[in-house]
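User: Sequence in, structure out. Go.
Assistant: Echoing your sequence, followed by the structure tokens.
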Amino acid sequence: MNVEDPAVEAQPHVDTTGRDGSDDHAAAHGEGDQEHAETGTEQADDGRTQDGRAEDGQNRRKPKREQRRRAKRIVDGWLILDKPIGLTSTEALGIVKRCYGAAKAGHAGTLDPLATGCLPLAFGEATKTVPYVFEGRKVYRFTVRWGAETDTDDSEGATVATSDTRPDVAAVEAVLPSFIGRVEQVPPRYSAIKIDGARAYDLAREGEVIEMKSRVVEIDSLEIVGVPDADHLELETECGKGTYVRAIARDLGRLLGCYGHVSALRRLAVGPFDEEDFVTLDEVRASAEGREDAPALPELMLPVDTALAEMFELDVNRVEASRLLRGQSIIVRGRDLPPLGETIYATCAGRLVALGEVEQGAFVPRRVFHLAAQDTHRRVEVEEG
């Protein structure tokens, strides 16, 4: 059952195989359950059935499949995908990764199949900046359907409570302030929260009665942006990591005495990325096919350091950059710097060199970046089993 909205306790994900195995949303929506073993006994080319038996019934050892090498590109940068409805984040990442022939890719925050919008995809060295994007603020636009609460708090769940009451705009506006700021929120039962080592959605699927504990989340804003009809209300929110949009809809419905659930969801921004940066799958495919009216694939990407736009930038010279790239600290005493312990990044001639912190008058690199002088797609040989 696809139930997870995108604002959850996901871990930043890096994928070097095309499989998005660490998705919090992926697991909640069954994305982690799509690998099934083939159990048929179709005839193989060498006279064996696919279960390893020869035609005469004798067991014979399968010949070791030869590894083949396929050229892949080292691509560095961010592509901000406008994910369409119906695709999992795993599938969307896989499509774009194949279009680029990329060796390494990941994403910063999952969107479930029913959600659309901002899905930041990181390639190559950009994957080192994924945690900083993941920690950024998110903006969502969503539609609440009044009159029914579901067990998943979205339109895919079973209805558990109904009401004929429909709130007017004034009633909704009166309660919205109670949702803003640092507030207590109870996550949905169908979520990736762990309870005694097990995911809540797994326990819920098994029919276990589970108690979800509330936790503090940060919601910067929540406002009405549209009223299509008496049954629906459109809202927009800016919130921090761990906020569940479905829980907002559920709690609004309960507070207003009319019940409610999310019927549509679109993410408008994640950290420094917003709708102005969006690229559609059709645009990616057109570029990959080399159409004359489409830009080259590298032109669809943003530089690696775009993800760090909200951080302090330290300008270093070539000698200092060389030390940083070797993992060595440099003296920065006397420079105008942010407070101790704050993560900053260093650049040399506009090129990203390292991420790190200032300690006792020195900049200590935590992550270094080996970027080409210009944006390039370098080919490497990758073994595939």
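User: And one key feature?
Assistant: The chain has a mean pLDDT of 81.
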